[in-house]
Amino acid sequence: MNTEQLRESFALTQLWQPGTVQFTYTHYDRVVVGSAMPGGSPISLPSYNALKSTFFLERREMGIINIGGSGSVYADGMTYDLGKLDCLYLGRGTRDIQFLSNDAKQPAQFFILSAPAHCPFPATLMKNAEALATPLGSPETSNERTIYKYIHEDGIKSCQLVMGLTILNQGSVWNTMPAHTHTRRMEVYLYFDIQEEQRVFHFMGEPQQTRHLVLGHGEAVISPPWSIHSGCGTANYSFIWGMAGENQSFADMDFVAIKELK
């Protein structure tokens, strides 16, 4: 694939449209990737013919992380307040869902992942300060960062979704290096908090056939199970990672030595 074909197949660059929800059905583990950016009025989560269901979460679960201004999510009679970097999980069977911004001039930006679910789990809100934080990397390798785990085996319970985010320290630019694959799970990255003039080079492809995509703030990339997913920025940045598949173990990955990459 050339650059244009790669971007058409794997990059999501039009996620944030004011006053609307945007969704892409990836078909990798049936994951749906989307966003909601409410303005002065609430946005209701619609149903879609492609899901072949009477409502969106009839047979699905959903993870939501806010990367914008303060907002809230209304779900079946409950209201959940989400500041920046807060996470909400909604389980199978949740029917009535609305997204709201506290201030239309500083709208919330809800990044959404949804995967098929075989049983319901309770709706759970986790503030960023409550998430399991794991420092990794070092200044010597330009990858000093903190991983925040929200939806995972020892955190918010789900059927198959795993979700969290990573924040790189100032002066660090590399994420997920050494690279790895996990053949039993697909993954999605959303890059954010990137200065307007800066970019992230996202590396993907099979370890011996690597490719790259250049992405800016608020742009996402779909990573198939056979692909590495590593990145290097022209300045520090943050990214949301989300996975779905047949295993929720965060450590289920096959590392690729740096010298083996081609």
Can you put this structure into words, describing what you see?
With 262 residues, the protein is mainly β. It has two domains: 3-127, Sandwich (Jelly Rolls), CATH 2.60.120; 129-260, Jelly Rolls, CATH 2.60.120.10. The protein is 3% helix and 44% strand. The protein is built from one helix and 23 strands. A hairpin with a 6-residue loop joins β2 and β3. The two termini are 16 Å apart.
Looking at the structure, what is the overall shape? Answer: globular
Mean pLDDT: 95
User: What is the CATH fold-level name of the largest domain?
Assistant: Jelly Rolls
The largest sheet is:
7 strands, antiparallel
End-to-end gap: 16 Å
Features:
262 residues, mainly beta, Jelly Rolls, six-stranded antiparallel sheet, 1 helix
Topology:
Blueprint: H1 3-10, E1 11-12, E2 21-25, E3 32-36, E4 43-44, E5 60-66, E6 71-75, E7 78-82, E8 87-90, E9 97-101, E10 110-116, E11 124-126, E12 132-136, E13 145-151, E14 162-168, E15 174-175, E16 180-181, E17 185-192, E18 200-206, E19 209-215, E20 219-223, E21 230-233, E22 238-245, E23 254-255
Antiparallel strand pairs: 1-20, 2-3, 3-10, 4-9, 5-8, 5-10, 6-7, 6-9, 8-11, 12-13, 13-14, 14-22, 15-21, 16-23, 17-20, 17-22, 18-19, 18-21
